[in-house]
Amino acid sequence: MSLQNFINDAISPWLNTEGIDNDIVLSSRVRLARNFEQVPFPTSGANEALVKVLEYMEQEFDDQSYNDLKQFQMIKMNDLKPVEKRVLVEKHLISPSLAEKDHTGAALISKNEQASVMINEEDHLRIQLYFPGFELTKALEQAQELDDWFEDKIQYAFDEQRGYLTSCPTNVGTGLRASVMMHLPALSMTNQINNLIPEINKLGLVVRGIYGEGSEALGQLYQISNQMTLGKSEEDIVEDLKSVVKQVIENERRAREWIMEQLGIQLEDRIFRSYGILANSRIIQSKEAAKCLSDVRLGIDLGLLENISKTILNELMVLTQPAFLQQYAKKTLSPNERDVFRANLIRERLQLEH
After folding, report:
1. What is the SS3 assignment for 287-328?
2. Where is the motif named RDXXRA motif of the pArg binding pocket involved in allosteric regulation mapped on this chain (predicted)?
3. Which CATH class is domain 1-15+31-173?
């Protein structure tokens, strides 16, 4: 397995399978924050200690496999070009924060990209596991098993009363952040999303954009996750999130039925116009591409568009991002050049479907 596999393929292998409620929930993720006992947290700036953490993880886990997660590979931030780091961010394999690290930062990524362990980001380890569709319980179970595999060789920083100790107080306790990535075009079209987000926030959950905190909801994609980890078990946190997500799914489905009934031909026109833009544009910006891809995906889910796979749309959502475009082009592109290259790429990819 080489670095090129991670940065050349737009879609992670695990996303090629369809999960539960995948018309609305694209993916489920469970992330566990863990730290080495008696080692300064990454936020302390103790670089010598952090380098030792990285070296230990490389020695013990690089090129190792765990169950179906074959062959973890260590990727060091210092070995990557800026555009390569950004590609890994666009694929959700690392965070923007880890991408800014130098010789202390790294990631262990499994061959199928379903699991990645960020090393020396905000905590020594951030273990994340992905599943397609609405599979939070399965993601939690496998993340716990993976966590146990690491804990066999690592003494974690743990307090009997407070739980796992972390750099950020909001992660103390279970260290768990569970999230789902949801496509909510109907709630966005009807403006219900603006009322829904504050209500979700009141329940101790948070709604973010496609790349987490501070990012936009490109293509009507929203990430919903828990905010606090102290005082509840991992299972309770996941069950609370699942309960809210189920309600959001129901609301989105009702909104889709409403727009089909009320908008009818206008909705079809919007979807087919968006497809026309994607299939024929010579210049297209990333925001417009994301909006059109969202419309086309909705058209597929509503049965209005045929002979186009949702997998290709998942691929294009990543492939058309700025860093991936430049990686694909094998050169640095100006903003205008990216817009032209993006349009060409989308046209070519859609033509392969026919």
Report:
1. HHHHHHHHHHHHHHHCCCCCCCCHHHHHHHHHHCCHHHHHHH
2. 338-343
3. alpha beta
Looking up tokens 């929930």 gives 25
Secondary structure letter of residue 113 according to DSSP: S
The pTM score is: 0.89
- Please tell me the distance from the alpha carbon of residue 92 to that of residue 348, in angstroms, as a whole number: 25
- Apex 320 CA angle, 316 and 323, nearest 5: 130
pLDDT (tens digit per residue) in 33-45: 999 999 999 988 7
Q: Residue 171 in contact with residue 123, Cβ under 8 Å?
A: yes
Confirm if 229 and 173 have CB atoms less than 8 A apart. yes
C-alpha–C-alpha distance, residues 106 and 140, integer Å: 23
Alpha helices in the chain (DSSP H): 3-8, 47-61, 82-90, 96-99, 136-151, 185-189, 193-202, 234-262, 265-280, 286-301, 310-319, 322-329, 335-351
Residues whose CB is less than 8 angstroms from the CB of residue 296 and which lie 6 or more positions away in sequence, other chains included:
271, 274, 275, 278, 305, 308, 313
- The SS3 call for residue 124 is coil
Structure tokens at 253: 């489905």
Report the binding-site residues: 27-31, 92, 126, 177-181, 208-213
For the annotated binding site for ATP, the residues are 27-31, 92, 126, 177-181, 208-213
- DSSP assignment string, 220-243: GEEEEEE---SSS-HHHHHHHHHH
| CA-to-CA dists, residue 220 to 182, 243, 263, 345, angstroms | 8, 21, 19, 22
User: pLDDT per residue over 43-62, tens digit each?
Assistant: 887 889 999 999 999 999 99
